[in-house]
Amino acid sequence: MAAANGTKNEKLDISPAAPGSDGAEAASMKEAELESHEVFLKTEDGVDFRNVSWPRATIIFLKIIFATGVLSIPTAMYTLGALGGALSVVGWSFMNTYTAVIQGNFKTRHPECHSLADMGYTVGGAWFREVIGILYLVAYILCTGSGIVGLSVAFNALSDHAACTVWWGFLSFVIITAAASIRTLRNIGWLTWVGFFSIFIAILVVVIGVTTLDRPAAAPQEGNFELGYHVIAYPTFAAGMTATATIFVSTAGTSAFLPVISEMRNPREYKKALYICMSLVLAMYLSFSLVVYRWCGGWVTNPSLGSAGGTIKKVSYGIALIGLAVSGCLYQHVAAKYLFVRILRGTKHLQSNTVTHWVTWLGCTISLGVVAFILAEAIAIFNYLIALTGAVCFAPMAITIPGILWLHDFSEYRRGSAWQKAQYYFHWFLVLLGAFICVGGTYSTILSIKNAYDSGVIGSAFSCADNSATTH
Length: 472
Known about the structure:
Layout: H1 2-5, H2 21-36, H3 54-65, H4 73-109, H5 116-124, H6 126-159, H7 165-180, H8 185-211, H9 237-249, H10 257-262, H11 270-296, H12 310-344, H13 355-378, H14 382-409, H15 418-455
Helix pairs in contact: 3-8, 3-11, 4-9, 4-11, 4-14, 5-6, 5-14, 6-7, 6-12, 6-13, 6-14, 7-12, 7-13, 8-11, 8-12, 9-14, 9-15, 12-13, 14-15
Domain Amino acid transporter transmembrane: 51-446
Region (Disordered): 1-28
Organism: Neoarthrinium moseri
């Protein structure tokens, strides 16, 4: 395999075989060739990773995407306005769906690729693999950190800040790391069902709750007040880019789908799961965030589960506990699985229940969890952690790199028909767009974090202060 032996494979022909008996035989041979290049082989001995059906992949995809990002979109809409925020949600959802298709198609043509880093090796060699691998790890470590922050906020809200926030963060790290240490995605599958409906019901409770209030829970309860709802807003460049990065990252985690595809029984069925997942996510993001922003305006909390007042805040966080934990668990799992495969690929330990197998796997999950915990306590405000993740990591991983993957496999389009040339230069546009979001979003988010520290919105690192109070 390419990533294992240091030689790059040519892309495989995945076009349908001709009809007829000869065609059926050719299709069977082609399927066998594709299977022989897969990272995890189907086996009855040792650990069988290849046991995820496409319906189960759908719910795993849903829980990866429909996670902590949805809790920060209403705040971003306050910055961008209802129209700008809605267009941003729709635009980025379509863009991230398309780039997920590019990644999945590339995975099908190059089945030896387990992660985006392996794809980087195929198109750019060892140095590109290492660059993408670092981005991949940083991205999902930060996402795990956002899960730790979200879970610690829930514990603070439910307990009325009965303990130091650092201790709640540590408890969150232990819970998430324990769940992430389950080895196969099939065995995590039942958690994703519970986790998805946990977050869904919690947000639905908040959406219904805010519509029953005469005025937002965080607004002055007597006298006149400004709701702060705008159809069109005029943010500064820094504020607008931070909000844009927040919405972008809410559907940008599609590179986490690749390890799931590697564990599917039939990886060629990934598009069924992808299209169902992204369609549902778009509908839920738009409806939930627009209703919450319309009724709360500038008084929306961050995360948004606290927007309907103290009682509903506790109810929603109580319901969301499992979902918040599962979100962090999935992010930590895919990051640890990347390291695990990189270390043991090509050895008997990858799919055998050996001491080396277990020590490597648990070492990956625990060490990444520790790093995520440290980062979560250092940048302990939710929306900035989400925005920083989107700008630094997901802009190149979800936009720029998929553009490069397409250009690698279809380089001949540069000299093809007018339509082929248009496709070719559109994918160059993706490369540049990702670079712009990365640079502009990173600058804006760092500036916003600095201003938040200066104004006291963010306390010191490893602070015991309550992080479940309302923040704008």
